[in-house]
Write a structure and sequence with these properties.
By secondary structure, this protein is α+β, with helices and mostly antiparallel strands. The chain has one domain. It contains five helices and five strands, in the order ααββαααβββ. The strands form two sheets. It has a three-stranded antiparallel beta sheet with strand order 3-4-5, with no helix packed on it. A hairpin with a 6-residue loop joins strand 3 and strand 4. The longest helix is centred in the first third of the chain and has 19 residues. It binds zinc ion. Zinc ion binds next to helix 4 and helix 5.
């Protein structure tokens, strides 16, 4: 994934985190960093596909949780853009979270750098291997 695409994906994830926690709204492609980067019709930019299209092999977020969210807003709440979680509606929260998790699933796998140190302690032979955990601390 190109760096600029990753930046856009992360921005889009941020947007949905805000939708989920109620501090932001979904204005469709108007406030989607991926839609801004890629062509709105084809979801392609110079031969590179939007990571969503790459995943679904379809355009315009077809086949993603976004469509369910949009239908819920349109038909159950009779809302139009911008969408936001409707007060007291659990379905809104569930659907927004699904979209957020879907976007997060598109993030490239990040390889963790693990440092290992081998200690020779007492004789005759006592091998101690320690590694740095996710918390950045040395663990045995
Ligand atoms: Zn709702």
């Amino acid at each position: 994934m190109k760096k600029a695409t990753l930046v856009a994906l992360k921005k889009s994830i941020k947007k949905w985190e805000k939708v989920v926690d109620g501090s932001g709204e979904d204005d469709g492609s108007e406030n989607c960093a991926l839609c801004k980067r890629f062509d709105a019709e084809t979801c392609v930019l110079y031969g590179e596909q939007c990571p969503i299209r790459k995943k679904t092999r379809r355009k315009g977020c077809a086949g993603t949780p976004f469509i369910t969210w949009q239908n819920h807003q349109d038909y159950d709440h009779e809302e139009s853009f911008p969408y936001a979680i409707q007060l007291g509606c659990k379905k809104c929260v569930v659907l927004a979270k699904k979209e957020l998790n879907f976007l997060k699933s598109l993030l490239p796998f990040k390889r963790k750098r693990i440092e290992v140190r081998v200690f020779h302690q007492k004789e005759p032979f006592d091998l101690v291997i320690k590694f740095i955990g996710e918390d950045g601390k040395w663990n045995s």
